[in-house]
Amino acid sequence: MIKKNLDILIGLSPDSNVSIGEELEYIKVALLYGDNITLVSPKSLLFLGVSCILGMNERQTYRYLIDMIKGIEKDEYKREQYENIFQQYTAIKRKKHKNMQELLLIKQIEIQFNSSIEEYKNKIIEMFGEESILQFISAMNTNRLVVDTLNIEENNEFFNDRLIEEFFNKVSSTVVSGNKYPIYNKSTVDLLRSAIKEGKIQVPSYSNSNIKNANVASDLILRLPVFENSTVDEIIDIRKELDKYVNNFRGAIVDYSEKIKSEPWTNEFEHEAYNLFLKEVNPKIMAIDEEVKANKLLYKMVEKNLKNPISFATPMFGAIISPISNFINLSTTAMLTGASMAGTSLLAYKEWKEKLSQIEQNQLYFYYKSGKIISK
Fold first, then answer.
1. DSSP H stretches of helix in the chain
2. CA distances in angstroms from 29 to 39, 147, 214, listed in the order given
3. How far is CA 37 from CA 29, 33, 242, 287, in A?
4. Taking the model in full, what pTM does it have?
5. Which residues are within 8 A (CB) of 54 and not within 5 positions of it... i.e. 6 or more apart?
6. How many Å apart are CA 36 and CA 25, to the nearest integer?
7. Short-list 174, 217, 229, 210, CA closest to 25
8. Contact 35, 65 (CB under 8 A)
9. Is 129 left (phi over 0), alpha (psi -120 to 50) or beta?
10. CA 119, CA 168: separation in Å to the nearest integer?
């Protein structure tokens, strides 16, 4: 049976905070639950735009610095001067044989460039945080995450009306088409709610189901213990370990989503999702935990019987001085007892395996086990 991909679109409307912490939280949810991920986030584009210098070589960083200065500088003459400096530096750098004056000029330019670049890199790390930067890179390296460009290359300024329009078109078209499972933050939901109320977009029923499914899954995963403290790399490892159970969990999400009557755009949706967790999910997770604990006790009993040698109530010294007939009877009894205990152990082992298989087939096992691994 071929597993159908569950493709998620994360739509995050920007706020005044430059942190990418919210982006990382939703990325972790999608990495754990989904397959291919599209991130629609102006803030992530800004982050990628300013942080790309961190992975550049020396010449690339110099080119980046000059282009950035030229983009900020309003004076045409000064922009030309900056470009001339870079071209002069590049030309001298390529020469095999340089005179003393050229060597001194290169050294002077590099000192100025390197000082500015180091200051710029430190500012990026200060703005976004080194740990957040590394986690975002880890997510990109999975090849499961794509950041939508929002046609940014066509815009002269970053945050402008055209960019906001592109963002709205992207998140609203996903809602209408239903070809992805969208997860949106509150400000994006508010934006779409207004558009729906004003009749600008209409949400078909099949797309509405996708939105419910994705947001119920997101709500549950964000409730996992210490999920916010888990790293992207840890989430990637958990998904790899539990991948064979994820489809069952997706089935549970579909069932739970159908129980929620309110629309994802309403304030009641979050309240219903929370009640669902309290009444439906949490009791079942606790029941799974009790079953796992009971099964572990059974396994320990099996393990003890298989590891420990059989001890006999009658000392061997007594067997040696007993008549040969008694010794034969004792040996026969011991062998029969040993065979009986071995058979009992094998039956107990079989029972443990069957019980483990039943537990793992539970639709919420993926969710339960994810929480246990994260909490370690």
1. 21-33, 42-51, 58-72, 76-94, 100-128, 130-141, 161-177, 186-197, 205-222, 232-242, 246-259, 267-276, 282-307, 316-321, 324-360, 365-375
2. 12, 16, 10
3. 10, 10, 19, 32
4. 0.79
5. 121, 124, 133
6. 16
7. 229
8. no
9. left
10. 35
What is the DSSP secondary-structure string of 277-322? IIIIIHHHHHHHHHHHHHHHHHHHHHHHHHHSPP--SS-HHHHHHS
Biggest alpha carbon distance in the chain? 116
CB 37 within 8 A of CB 144: yes
What angle (nearest 5°) sits at the alpha carbon of residue 320, between those of residues 315 and 324?
120
The amino acid occupying position 158 is F
Q: Where are the domains of the chain?
A: 8-54+138-209+221-251, 57-130, 284-375
- Which stretches of the chain score pLDDT less than 50? 1-2, 155, 309-322, 324-328, 330-332, 334-337, 339-341
**Alpha carbon of 317 to those of 67, 152, 275, 322, 323: distances in Å?**
94, 90, 69, 9, 12
217 and 33 in contact (C-beta within 8 Å)? Answer: yes
Query: Look-up: residue for tokens 């590099």?
Result: 110
In the chain, the N- to C-terminal Cα span, in Å, equals 33
**Could you read off the pLDDT of 176-232 as tens digits, one per residue?**
887 889 999 989 988 888 988 888 888 887 777 888 899 999 999 999 988 989 999
Strand partners of residue 11:
40, 184
239-243's contacts with Cβ under 8 Å and 24+ in sequence apart are 239/31, 239/32, 241/373, 242/366, 242/369, 242/370, 242/373
